[in-house]
Amino acid sequence: MTEISTLIVDGILAVLLVSVIVVCTIVYRRLGTIKSGQAELRALVDQLNTAVVDAQRSVANLKTSATEIEGRLQIEGKKASAIADELGMITEAGNNLADRIERGLSGASAAKKQQAPAETSASKKQQEEILAALREAR
Asked: Would you say the C-alpha torsion 110, 114, 115, 121 has a positive or negative sign?
């Protein structure tokens, strides 16, 4: 019986050793898969890191450009304000001149009426047209 029991124990040990070898092979393959996934993940992280660095550089460039453009816009705004003020003064001077011309024409027509009551209707029409054009121009 000792030989049979030894043989049975050796058989069981052989089966257990084979099963351990199979399990170790499966574990080894899974570890290989994990290692290859880890290498891919490392490459992906490196690419992401590069993209983040590029994005930070781009944001810094945008900030610099925005600051430069802001300065230019402030200068242009000041110029536009000065031009608007100047145009306002020119418009006011033009209105004053038109008022003086209108008063001069109105005063001249009143003086002519006193001097020459037999004024022609054609020259009267011309004066009215000039006055209407000046009023419309304002």
From this structure: positive
* Displacement of CA 114 from its chain's centroid (Å): 70
Rounded CA-CA distance 71/73 in Å is 5
**137, 100, 136, 106: which is closest to 124 by C-alpha?**
106
End-to-end Cα separation, the chain, in angstroms: 132
Reading the chain (138 residues) residue by residue, the pLDDT tens digits are 688 889 999 999 999 999 999 999 999 999 998 988 888 899 999 999 999 999 999 999 999 999 999 999 999 999 999 899 899 888 888 888 888 888 877 776 665 555 555 455 667 777 777 777 777 766
Residue 105 neighbours by CB under 8 Å, 6+ apart: 127, 130, 131
Quick one: which of 113, 103, 109 has its CA closest to 135? 103
The answer to whether the CB of 95 falls within 8 A of the CB of 138 is: yes
Measured over the CA atoms of residue 59, residue 60, residue 61 and residue 62, the dihedral's sign is positive
